[in-house]
Amino acid sequence: METFSTRVTNYEMHNCIDFDKIIEINSGGSGVIYKYECKCCKITKALKRLRDGTQIQNFNSEVEILRIAQGHPNIITFYGVTKVRNADIKF
């Protein structure tokens, strides 16, 4: 099974208990996109939940593209990753 690239794992790991007001906004072949409010800073952010482990290579490519385009006003900022270990957490 694929793993996250070193470039992805070098970003901050976020705890999903810091997510508030989670709303699904879109879905596609690789995952589901949500918007949420970060409890610690009250900033609205987007969250992409991968459908399964087969999407990790595509995700690594997306993160590389975001890293290259970082700072452009029309490109989102990649803040980090989270991993849900508890099956009771649903979003």
From TrEMBL:
Gene3D superfamilies: Transferase(Phosphotransferase) domain 1. Residues 19-91 form the Protein kinase domain. It comes from the Eukaryota. One of its GO terms (molecular function) is ATP binding. This is Protein kinase domain-containing protein. The lineage of its organism: Eukaryota, Fungi, Fungi incertae sedis, Mucoromycota, Glomeromycotina.
